[in-house]
Structure formats: structure tokens, C-alpha cells
């Protein structure tokens, strides 16, 4: 069972318990809270698998759930620093926004290994921190090129939440548009939890864009797509998202996602050997009514296995290494990998939303 944060603070160093304690940092409130159930359920599968063997470093793995939402009540940096100083955690697996990662990277300081799991903007070089998700170069660029070739939109719009991942991704997208000699019709960033998407969609509709890159998070993306769908804008504007997964797809509603494409290294319905094995273990643990399988959740499963492999293969040097070293960590994953530039990187797929499921997968 997960350890409660209050218990750790009360009892301090619990190494005598023999457990290897992993702080699982995930958003549990705010727009990104829609991902929490899938993240927890997927991480639990990894813990069950690790504990059926030798755990991590010969110790039974135990999760500590911590709310890493931007909107969380307590500052995440203070919580994590306190737990590290108490000797109460042995590692971090984080599925949260890049803004949170940037804050935590200044606090963790190589004291425990830190695995950052979701897609992100790239460029992470902090020693002891390993970002395993795909970057815009791997994900966004090929997807935009394929849609541009297929549909020939004359103008693109860029819409996102106001933080580092959308802004960095959109900077890359603008370079892609320039290289493809396509115009930028609109670029706009909005705060988390925007009460109404009406004015934003008004601006998009008036911009003359034929395509829009939607870099909104969780419930914000859902609310945007609902408003977009109510107006029937799919008849004139196609949508691309790097972060709309199966939970968001269902929440948007069957009629609000026509002409919507998502790009990711994982979809729950992809039929690959790696995913088929992961799904079998996931449903064996949680049953057919478990939370939806998606890229965000799968990343916590993979992050725990990556942590185990990292400490097994690089336990004596992980503090001096970082994401940019592309360490050949052997680990289990629901994703499939291909060899690129001498290293294994995840295969990336472009999918079309069809009702409340994804289909027409294209490998990029």
C-alpha cells in the first residue's frame, strides 16, 4: 500500500522498513488532474511486477503519492526537499508539467534519481534527472509535415497554456511552418483553468486558420474541443494535439472531435507486442473497468521500470549522467522502440480521433 505523506513526516527516516520508496509525483487537481487515475493504475502494475522479483536494489518497492499539480496547496519543492532530507524517499518518478520539473531540478540536486516520464520540450541536461518522453523534434515535426502534405492547410494557428512546454513546442512549430512556407495565422497562450473558451475560439474562427496546433492541458483541452465542436469548426479547421489522450478523448464527447489528430509514442489500442503484454498485465491487475490506458499513464509504468534498470546498470554513475547521455537502460515498456542515431527511441504514431477512440495509426 502507498505510504501517506503525513506518516513520513512524523516518523522521518524509515529505511529500517526495508522498502525502496518512490515518490510518484502526479497532478491530482486542476486541469491536469484528469490524468491521475491512469497514472496511479499504471504505476501500480510496475510495482507489482518489480515486487514479484527482487524489487529495486533488493528492496520491496513502495509508492508515495504526491500531488504535483501547479494548483496544489503546498509548494512541491518544499515537500520533496523535506522528504529527501528526512531520508524518506529513495527516488522520484514524475509525471507532471515541465514548469514543475524545472522548479524541482533545482531542489533535488542529484540526491536521489529523478525520472521524468511524459513528452516534453526537450533540452533537459540536469545531472541525475532523466527525461524519457518524446520531444517536438521526434513527435510534432513529423506530424505537422504529414498533415501539411495530406491536407495542404494555408495557415496554422498555435494555441496553448501559458508555460514552458507549449511555448517551446510552438517555437519549434513556427520553424517547421517557415520551412514548409506556410503562414502563421494566430498564436495565443491562456492561463490554466480558463473559465470559458468562447473568446479563444472566437479568435481562432476569425483568424482564417485552416489548421490549429492545440497545446492545452487536460481539462482545458477538453473544454476547448467541446466549444470547437459545438460550432462545427471541424468543417474548415483541422486540429493536431500532442497531449490529447484517451481520457481527454472520452471527455470531449463523440461529436466534438471530427478532423482531430493526435500524435504520441503510445496509444492504448495500438497492437504491438510491447503493448499487448502491458495490456495483459494491466487488465489482470485492474480488470476490464480499470482507468483508460493512455500515453500519460503508461509513462509512469515505464518510468518505474526505467528507474529499476538505471540503478541496476548505472547505479554507480547515475548522479553524473543526464538525459542527454542517452544511457542504454534496459527496461520494460508498453511502447515500441526503434534505433535512431545509435540509440533506441520510441516509435511515434499519428492517429485520428473516431468517436471516442483513436484509429488510422501512421508511424512517423
UniProtKB/TrEMBL annotation:
Record keywords: Signal
Keyword Signal listed: yes
Residue span(s) of domain Leucine-binding protein: 21-317
InterPro entries: Leu-bd, Peripla_BP_I
Pfam family, one: Peripla_BP_6
Family, per entry: Belongs to the leucine-binding protein family.
Name of the featured protein: Substrate-binding domain-containing protein
Amino acid at each position: 500500500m502507498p505510504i501517506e505523506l503525513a506518516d513520513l513526516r512524523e516518523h522521518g527516516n524509515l529505511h529500517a522498513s526495508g522498502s525502496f520508496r518512490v515518490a510518484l509525483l502526479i497532478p491530482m487537481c486542476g486541469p491536469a488532474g484528469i490524468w491521475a487515475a491512469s497514472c496511479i493504475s499504471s504505476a501500480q502494475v510496475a510495482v507489482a511486477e518489480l515486487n514479484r522479483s527482487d524489487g529495486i536494489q533488493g528492496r520491496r518497492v513502495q509508492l508515495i503519492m504526491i500531488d504535483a499539480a501547479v494548483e496544489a496547496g503546498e509548494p512541491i519543492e518544499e515537500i520533496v526537499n523535506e522528504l529527501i532530507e528526512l531520508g524518506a524517499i529513495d527516488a522520484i518518478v514524475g509525471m507532471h508539467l515541465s514548469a514543475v520539473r524545472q522548479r524541482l531540478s533545482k531542489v533535488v540536486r542529484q540526491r536521489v534519481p529523478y525520472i521524468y516520464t511524459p513528452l516534453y520540450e526537450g533540452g533537459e541536461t540536469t545531472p541525475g534527472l532523466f527525461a524519457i518522453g518524446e520531444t517536438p523534434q521526434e513527435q510534432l515535426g513529423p506530424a505537422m509535415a504529414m498533415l501539411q502534405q495530406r491536407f495542404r492547410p494555408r495557415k496554422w494557428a498555435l494555441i496553448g497554456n501559458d508555460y514552458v512546454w507549449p511555448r517551446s513546442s510552438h517555437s519549434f512549430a513556427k520553424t517547421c511552418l517557415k520551412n514548409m512556407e506556410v503562414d502563421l495565422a494566430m498564436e495565443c497562450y491562456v492561463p490554466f483553468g480558463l473559465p470559458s473558451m468562447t473568446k479563444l475560439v472566437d479568435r481562432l474562427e476569425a483568424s482564417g486558420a485552416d489548421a490549429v496546433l492545440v497545446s492545452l492541458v487536460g481539462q482545458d483541452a477538453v473544454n476547448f474541443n467541446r466549444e470547437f465542436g459545438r460550432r462545427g469548426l471541424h468543417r474548415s479547421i483541422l486540429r493536431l494535439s500532442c497531449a490529447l489522450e484517451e481520457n481527454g478523448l472520452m471527455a470531449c464527447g463523440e461529436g466534438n472531435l471530427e478532423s482531430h489528430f493526435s500524435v504520441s509514442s503510445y496509444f492504448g489500442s495500438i497492437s504491438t507486442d510491447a503493448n499487448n503484454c502491458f495490456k495483459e498485465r494491466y487488465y489482470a491487475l485492474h480488470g476490464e473497468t480499470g482507468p483508460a490506458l493512455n500515453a500519460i499513464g503508461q509513462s509512469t509504468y515505464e518510468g518505474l521500470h526505467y528507474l529499476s534498470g538505471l540503478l541496476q546498470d548505472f547505479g554507480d554513475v547515475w548522479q553524473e549522467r543526464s538525459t542527454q547521455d542517452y544511457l542504454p537502460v534496459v527496461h520494460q515498456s508498453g511502447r515500441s522502440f526503434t534505433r535512431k542515431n545509435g540509440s533506441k527511441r520510441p516509435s511515434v504514431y499519428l492517429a485520428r480521433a473516431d468517436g471516442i477512440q483513436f484509429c488510422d495509426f501512421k508511424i512517423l
